[in-house]
């Protein structure tokens, strides 16, 4: 470990955010970085525990104590190799991961966990700055061809590992740029897209073939796909958003969150958005329905678009500030989380349900909301009920639906491929990530359900390992 008494002598220190009155005027990354001396001190706080719960809590199995020690010793090449051994793009998770590892850190018992996520990002950036990260194409090729459909975190993770194994990998993306959720779902103020492009340049140099603007099932038929490739990995994500089935849903000014975020990311990339298609929060009273990360991203984007006001509501009760008895350390805690966007001028409310949306001349103008409470029935299931006489009307001009995703889109490719679905509507796979169609595997949200980027990366790793065995046995 860096310093056996580091966790006693040195307090946790975060990089923090850029000043609010500066960052709300641009889409640059909001997080700041510590100077090198402070970063090494933070790495020294890792205790190299006998049982590394941080490693247990990390979905990709990052060997955290090992690379923290290498970081402290300023051996950036070794630190990066350790990080990269379990994660194809640690510079991305180092920016956007909610860091379950930190909630599993032994020091989190005292709410002072090691700054693992920030240390991860700093390690990779130091390695890039020092020219230690270079393309490393496989020495030998197997001749086996694999198609990866979808270029989000699961697809890129699987593609990277299969390419390293020597297979010929082609990644198909229906959009105009590679990255999936990373590219168009996450705002630039959280993830600069140059970070993605830098990694993609390495992947291309290492031999991965990327094809954009191709919708498999339309531009490439099922027959051609299965004939041309020895194996296929579905990494389409769970793109079916949860809708709001209330009166007034059809009004102008009511949009899904991902449509709003995608449009802004495309605009940031220099793409022209016609004025009649533009979803703008400028000078509007914005209502964000849904209290998760995507809702938070809508808040930050609305503020940067100069919204008059932003209100975010959540149907569930307000979480506590500290762990409860149901989620003790080292488990992931259900606690109140405040993002950088929330600190920029957003009002938040909980235990509210939307009853209807009210319009004028076809345009949304008000929302009728009601307070709800949650109680368990005789079977222990949570039941929601409205609190009498708590209905209220709020004035709004723009509604952004951010209530999560229910399942992958079935129509089109998935139905054409003939894969089976599970009870939740996700693609059904076995423990090898293999679908009901022999040559077809699935990874990430398309088979797991909507989840974290790190879970998608791990699913891609598992699928890649099993596809490799499938191809070699074949």
Structure description:
- The protein is α/β, with parallel strands linked by helices and 474 residues long.
- It has three domains: 6-129, Fumarate Reductase Iron-sulfur Protein, Chain B, domain 2, CATH 1.10.1060.10; 145-239 and 406-473, 3-Layer(bba) Sandwich (FAD/NAD(P)-binding domain), CATH 3.50.50.60; 243-403, FAD/NAD(P)-binding domain (3-Layer(bba) Sandwich).
- Helices cover 33% and strands 16% of the residues.
- It has helices at 6-9, 20-23, 36-44, 53-57, 64-72, 76-84, 90-96, 100-104, 116-129, 153-164, 181-184, 193-205, 222-228, 257-268, 293-304, 413-417, 445-448, 453-473, and strands at residues 145-149, 168-172, 209-211, 231-234, 240-241, 254-256, 285-289, 309-313, 347-349, 352-360, 363-376, 382-386, 392-395, 398-401, 405-407, 440-442.
- The strands form four sheets. A five-stranded parallel sheet has the order 3-2-1-4-16, with helices on both faces. It has a five-stranded parallel sheet with strand order 6-14-7-8-9. Strands 10, 11, 12 and 13 form a four-stranded antiparallel sheet that branches.
- Helix 6 crosses helix 9.
- The radius of gyration is 23 Å and the shape is globular.
- The model has no long low-confidence stretch (mean pLDDT 96).
């Amino acid at each position: 470990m860096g310093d056996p008494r580091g966790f006693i002598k040195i307090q946790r220190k975060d990089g923090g955010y850029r000043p609010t009155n500066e960052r709300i005027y641009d889409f640059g990354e909001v997080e700041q970085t510590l100077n090198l001396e402070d970063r090494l001190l933070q790495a020294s706080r890792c205790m190299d525990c006998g049982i590394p719960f941080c490693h247990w809590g990390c979905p990709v199995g990052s060997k955290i104590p090992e690379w923290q020690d290498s970081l402290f010793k300023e051996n950036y090449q070794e630190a990066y190799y350790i990080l990269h051994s379990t994660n194809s793009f640690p510079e991305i998770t180092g920016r956007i991961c909610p860091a379950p590892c930190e909630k599993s850190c032994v020091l989190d018992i005292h709410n002072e966990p090691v700054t693992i996520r920030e240390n991860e990002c700093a390690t990779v950036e130091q390695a890039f700055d020092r020219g230690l990260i270079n393309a490393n194409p496989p020495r030998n090729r197997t001749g086996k061809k694999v198609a990866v459909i979808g270029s989000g975190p699961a697809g890129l993770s699987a593609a990277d590992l299969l390419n390293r194994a020597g297979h010929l990998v082609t990644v198909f993306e229906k959009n105009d740029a590679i990255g999936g959720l990373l590219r168009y779902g996450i705002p630039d103020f959280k993830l600069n897209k140059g970070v993605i492009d830098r990694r993609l340049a390495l992947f291309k140099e290492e031999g991965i073939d990327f094809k954009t603007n191709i919708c498999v099932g339309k531009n490439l038929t099922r027959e051609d796909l299965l004939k041309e490739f020895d194996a296929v990995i579905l990494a389409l994500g769970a793109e079916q958003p949860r809708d709001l089935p209330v009166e007034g849903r059809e009004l102008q000014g009511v949009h899904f969150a991902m449509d709003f975020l995608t449009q802004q990311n495309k605009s940031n990339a220099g793409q022209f958005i016609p004025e009649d298609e533009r979803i703008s929060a400028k000078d509007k009273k914005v209502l964000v329905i849904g209290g998760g990360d995507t809702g938070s991203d809508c808040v930050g984007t609305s503020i940067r678009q100069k919204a008059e006001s932003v209100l975010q509501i959540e149907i569930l009760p307000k979480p506590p500030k500290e762990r409860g008895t149901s989620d003790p350390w080292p488990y992931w805690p259900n606690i109140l989380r405040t993002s950088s966007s929330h600190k920029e001028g957003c009002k938040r409310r909980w235990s509210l349900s939307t009853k209807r949306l009210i319009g004028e001349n076809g345009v949304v103008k008000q929302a009728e909301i009601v307070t709800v409470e949650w109680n368990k029935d005789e079977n222990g299931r949570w039941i929601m009920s409205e609190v009498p006489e708590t209905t209220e009307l709020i004035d709004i001009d723009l509604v952004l639906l951010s209530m999560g995703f229910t399942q992958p889109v079935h129509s089109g490719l998935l139905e054409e491929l003939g894969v089976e679905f599970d009870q939740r509507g996700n693609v059904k796979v076995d423990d090898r990530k293999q679908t009901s169609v022999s040559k077809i595997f699935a990874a990430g949200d398309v088979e797991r359900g909507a989840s974290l980027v790190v879970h998608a990366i791990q699913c891609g790793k598992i699928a890649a390992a099993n596809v490799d065995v499938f191809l070699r046995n074949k």
